[in-house]
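Project outcomes to date are best conveyed with an example. Our students and postdoctoral researchers have been running inverse folding experiments weekly, and each run begins with a structure described purely in tokens. The record below, which covers 183 residues, was selected by the lab manager from last quarter's runs and is presented without edits.
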């Protein structure tokens, strides 16, 4: 049986977050008319880090930051064996004519991002939406969705499972590839 392996360790993880932040600053400079939105639940862990790091890099930055729940926008929420638990949406602004950076941890099939785009539509019509993911599993897409900013690209077979671990929750920051889905 194949063993799991660490794809990004703690130091590489930190450097990847910093690189993503510098890419955003390069693109959006002062973030005027730009907002950042994390997809509940695991995308928010990444977006919290991104927002914190952006402000550490440039304390003068100011932008709306929201957290959006996509539970009931998913195309598979009625197909689950057990009921899904919704998270809170925390958005006290609209996205009308704004540049939106939508953030999620792992881009796999694209269905979560599709649900996020649908949910985002209830807050206005953005000028542009760009996608930032920590992990892009590019050969597993069901929908034509591609990230604009990617921490790492992993080419893994369908049975493989990518787990992002967060220091606050799991004791350390790392990305692990398992040969099969973990229970």
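After processing, the design step wrote out the following sequence:
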């Amino acid at each position: 049986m194949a063993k799991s392996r660490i794809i990004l360790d703690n130091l590489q993880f930190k450097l990847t977050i910093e690189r993503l932040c510098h890419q955003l600053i390069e693109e959006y400079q002062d973030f005027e008319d730009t907002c950042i939105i994390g997809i509940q639940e695991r995308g928010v862990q990444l977006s919290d880090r991104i927002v914190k790091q952006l402000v550490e890099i440039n304390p003068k930055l100011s932008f709306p930051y929201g957290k959006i729940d996509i539970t009931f926008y998913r195309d598979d929420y009625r197909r689950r064996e057990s009921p899904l638990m919704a998270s809170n949406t925390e958005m006290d602004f609209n996205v009308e004519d704004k540049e939106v950076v939508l953030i999620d941890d792992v881009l796999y099939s694209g269905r979560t991002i599709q649900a996020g785009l649908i949910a985002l539509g209830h807050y206005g019509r953005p000028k542009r939406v760009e996608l930032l993911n920590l992990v892009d599993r590019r050969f597993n897409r069901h929908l034509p969705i591609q990230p604009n900013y990617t921490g790492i690209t992993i080419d893994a077979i369908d049975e493989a499972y990518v787990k992002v671990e967060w220091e606050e929750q799991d004791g350390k920051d790392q990305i692990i590839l398992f040969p099969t889905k973990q229970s």
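Helices lie at 10-28, 42-57, 111-120, 167-170. The domain at 30-158 is CATH 3.40.50.2020 (Rossmann fold). The training component of this project remains on track.
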